[in-house]
């Protein structure tokens, strides 16, 4: 069967799939042109109609069964274990909510109740089973541990308001709950809670009050835009986090913007600091106002000075500028619009299998989930039945800014605190994922009273990268060739996105045929822009009249719980060192060359690499007790694709909350109590964080022959430029890491792929094609069969 192809089509491929593309459905290895090879169709899972082949298969069956029994059982157990990692279902979410709401001692009310002085559920998501319990199901087929929910409850209706997390079990019919604690029993400060729709509604109210006082100024400034009583010329706002400068504070800088398409890049130069800590919104106060580079202690002071004509350099914002932030095409197009560009097709159907959250493809299998707090996770990742990683999961994404306005200098976005996992919205077929992708709905329960369905928010597809996985043209150097060999590069992609207000992150896992996994994030969406001031040019680029794109660093944190050929792993780094010795075949000369330099890292501190320090070129995780055929420890590398750097000096205030961001790579011993490196509370209390990654390595444990977890930080510096208008584009803005086998196998495991094509010159140099997939791909890819002629000549 052919994998997906990128094809350029003038007609609808979907229409022709049934009639044309499905026609080639043979299993035997294919020899085209004039010659026919007699090949054994090993590994083919389709049926042959030839009686002799049937007989062979019958003879081989008992042997095959013995050999594959373990493999089949392993597959069954992986499949059996997958539901342990599935996100909470609608039924479970509703059951947990009603269980907790029926407990009178909690006094829960609806989350959408307009009061802030209430007890209500903020978030519910799956609580993962402990690893050793999960492994009993995955490795021995034993009964799965019961499912549990993690529930975040905000207790605002208490003398001392607080946030408490509960573990509720068993699902789907809960009857017990216990308080979930964090490492070091750190409490969750009430002020560190994520902001909710209800709190926003009160912010909206106070802004309405404030803007009434400055309506004339705002209208004069913007050419008629106002916050109140507006129809098509309205203002909106963006709020900045963290909400203060010290633990326990909840005061946010808010900037007004024109409410047009892409309002994020329409700041009007009015920023206001509102203290909204009090649970009675009537007691909220304005602490500072910033307008056009000047600070005021109150709105009244600004209005007074404006009316007295004391505001200097009153900006003259352009009118009718909303087009600048839209997607509506402008400029001359050089591409034809009457035909589509290349599309991905699966000429003979799908080659991967999805059963709820369990996915299988080309030897790979894994389970996935998208937790509402922090997003995409993959579990029990196996290749050819062997587990490579128990968990690979997104932990946190931050963007720390700099600028000249108070909003800009305060912006340190820590996105799990905005429930970036629950910010997974619908994906567009043909743009966000190919039309042929499997689209999956996600369900989230964050700041809501009912589960929310996010339709088609995750997609899975096989894609052709348009690049061979490997190829060789073996020239005979006399105008011809000895052979050509090539293997197309098809990968399975698991994708979801997070749109955290202005920014869009595209989260990808790519599973390659050769045992490689790529984890990647691509950044797009609107930049976070502030009002332009001349001093702002130290912090970014002017991208429009009165608009500055502010510099910021994106850093993304991943947890990679590797299990390389078992749980007991070692970690080493490999680099090169120069050696210098007398040339053995010319004694008067010296040989200078590089030699492998391996460093075994035996403790967590020694395996925590700092940004700014030299990073070893190979970071190698291996099983010290398992060798490949050639005597090397079976291992995998983590290869970073990143331009990340630290965002603040170590230990400086907000940096304490993102201590994971000190290390492009840190290796720890697995602990169920160290499940995440960040939390939804870091955003609004980065100074004394509930979860601190530094705690995980502080005890400097031994990491030799241990269950190891690699914590990977990738990222990039983003200095916005005019081409970020209207949106940051994905090319060049993707970072991530690869998991690559390193002596794990005895040879390239993609040798088992039947997508290989070999061509040799036959009689009279007529090419003889050897392949294991059908000759013709189907009309929606090419009209004719594969052809190749390896000759070359002068012309
Ligand atoms: Cu950016």
Please provide a written account of the structure.
- Among the domains are: 197-325, Nuclear Transport Factor 2, Chain: A; 343-562 and 635-645 and 706-751, Beta-galactosidase, Chain A, domain 5 (Distorted Sandwich), CATH 2.70.98.
- It has 9 helices and 37 strands.
- The chain is mainly beta and 795 residues long.
- Helix content is 13%, strand content 37%.
- Helix 2 runs antiparallel to helix 4.
- The protein has a 17-stranded antiparallel sheet that branches.
- Bound molecules: copper (II) ion.
- Copper (II) ion binds next to strand 27.
Topology:
Layout lengths: L4 E3 L5 H9 L8 E2 L19 H31 L8 H12 L17 E9 L3 H10 L6 E9 L6 E10 L4 E4 L17 H17 L1 H8 L12 E5 L11 E8 L8 E9 L9 E7 L2 E3 L2 H9 L35 E3 L7 E3 L2 E4 L2 E8 L3 E9 L2 E16 L4 H5 L1 E3 L23 E9 L5 E24 L5 E20 L2 E10 L4 E9 L3 E3 L8 E5 L2 E4 L1 E11 L7 E13 L7 E11 L7 E2 L8 E10 L5 E9 L23 E5 L24 H5 L9 E11 L15 E9 L13 E6 L5 E5 L24
Bound molecules: copper (II) ion (CU).
């Amino acid at each position: 069967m052919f994998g997906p192809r990128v094809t350029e089509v003038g007609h609808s491929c979907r229409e022709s799939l049934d009639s044309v593309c499905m026609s080639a459905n043979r299993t035997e290895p294919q020899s085209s042109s004039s010659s026919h090879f007699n090949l054994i169709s090993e590994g083919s899972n389709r049926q042959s109609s030839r009686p002799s082949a049937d007989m062979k298969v019958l003879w081989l069956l008992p042997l095959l069964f013995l050999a594959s029994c373990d493999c089949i059982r392993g597959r069954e157990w992986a499949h059996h274990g997958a539901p342990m990692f599935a996100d909470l279902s609608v039924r479970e979410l509703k059951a947990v909510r009603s269980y907790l709401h029926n407990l009178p001692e909690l006094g829960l009310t609806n989350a959408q109740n307009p009061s802030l002085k209430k007890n209500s559920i903020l978030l519910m998501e799956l609580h993962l089973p402990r690893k050793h319990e999960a492994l009993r199901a995955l490795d021995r087929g034993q009964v799965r541990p019961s499912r549990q929910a993690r529930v975040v409850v905000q207790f605002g209706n208490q003398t001392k308001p607080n946030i408490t997390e509960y573990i509720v079990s068993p699902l789907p019919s809960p009857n017990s709950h216990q308080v979930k604690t964090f490492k070091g029993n750190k409490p969750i400060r009430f002020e560190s809670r994520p902001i909710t729709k209800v709190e926003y509604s009160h912010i909206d109210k106070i802004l309405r009050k404030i803007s009434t006082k400055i309506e004339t100024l705002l209208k004069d400034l913007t050419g008629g835009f106002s916050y109140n009583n507006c129809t098509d010329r309205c203002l909106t706002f963006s709020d900045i986090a963290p909400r203060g400068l010290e633990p326990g504070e909840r005061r946010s800088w808010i900037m007004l913007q024109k409410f047009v398409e892409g309002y994020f890049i329409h700041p009007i130069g009015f920023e206001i600091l509102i203290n909204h800590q009090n649970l009675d919104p009537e007691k909220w106060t304005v602490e500072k106002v910033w307008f056009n580079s000047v600070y005021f202690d109150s709105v009244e002071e600004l209005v007074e000075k404006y009316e007295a004509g004391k505001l200097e350099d009153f900006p003259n914002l352009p009118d009718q500028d909303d087009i600048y932030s839209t997607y509506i095409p402008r400029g001359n197009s050089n591409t034809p619009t009457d035909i589509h560009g290349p599309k991905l097709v699966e000429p003979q159907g799908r080659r991967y299998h999805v059963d709820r959250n369990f996915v299988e493809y080309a030897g790979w299998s894994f389970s996935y989930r998208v937790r509402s707090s922090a997003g995409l996770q993959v579990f029990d990742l196996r290749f050819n039945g062997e587990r490579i990683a128990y968990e690979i999961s997104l932990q946190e994404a931050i963007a720390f800014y700099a600028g000249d306005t108070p909003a800009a200098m305060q912006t340190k976005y820590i996105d799990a605190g905005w429930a970036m996992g629950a910010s997974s919205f619908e994906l567009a077929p043909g743009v966000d994922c190919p039309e042929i992708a499997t689209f999956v709905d996600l369900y989230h329960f964050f700041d809501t009273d009912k589960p929310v369905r996010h339709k088609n928010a995750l997609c899975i597809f096989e894609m052709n990268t348009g690049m061979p996985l490997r190829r060789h043209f073996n020239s005979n150097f006399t105008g011809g060739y000895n052979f050509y060999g090539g293997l197309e590069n098809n990968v399975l992609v698991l994708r979801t996105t997070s749109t955290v207000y202005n920014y869009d992150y595209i989260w990808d896992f790519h599973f390659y045929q050769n045992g490689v996994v790529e984890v990647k994030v691509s950044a797009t969406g609107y930049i976070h822009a502030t009002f332009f001031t001349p001093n702002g040019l130290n912090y970014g680029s002017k991208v429009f009249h009165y608009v500055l794109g502010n510099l910021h660093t994106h850093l993304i944190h991943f947890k990679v719980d590797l299990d390389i050929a078992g749980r007991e792993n070692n970690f080493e780094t490999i680099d090169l060192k120069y050696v210098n010795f007398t040339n053995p075949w010319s004694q008067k000369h010296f040989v200078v060359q590089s030699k492998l330099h391996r460093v075994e890292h035996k403790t967590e501190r020694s395996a925590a690499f700092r940004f700014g320090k030299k990073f070893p070129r190979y970071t190698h995780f291996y099983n010290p007790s398992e060798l490949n055929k050639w005597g090397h420890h079976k291992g995998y590398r983590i290869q970073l694709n990143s331009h990340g750097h630290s965002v603040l000096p170590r230990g400086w205030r907000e940096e304490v909350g993102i201590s994971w961001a000190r290390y492009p790579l840190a290796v720890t011993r697995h602990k169920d109590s160290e499940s995440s490196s960040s939390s939804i509370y870091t955003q609004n209390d980065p100074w004394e964080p509930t979860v601190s990654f530094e705690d995980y390595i502080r005890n400097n444990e031994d990491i030799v022959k241990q269950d190891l977890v690699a914590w990977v930080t990738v990222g990039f510096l983003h200095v916005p430029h005019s081409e970020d208008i209207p949106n940051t584009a994905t090319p060049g803005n993707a970072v991530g890491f690869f998991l690559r086998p390193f002596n794990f196998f005895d040879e390239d495991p993609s040798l088992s792929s039947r997508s290989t094509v070999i061509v040799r010159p036959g009689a009279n140099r007529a090419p003889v094609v050897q392949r294991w997939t059908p000759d013709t791909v189907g009309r929606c890819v090419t009209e004719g069969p594969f052809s190749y002629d390896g000759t070359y000549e002068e012309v």
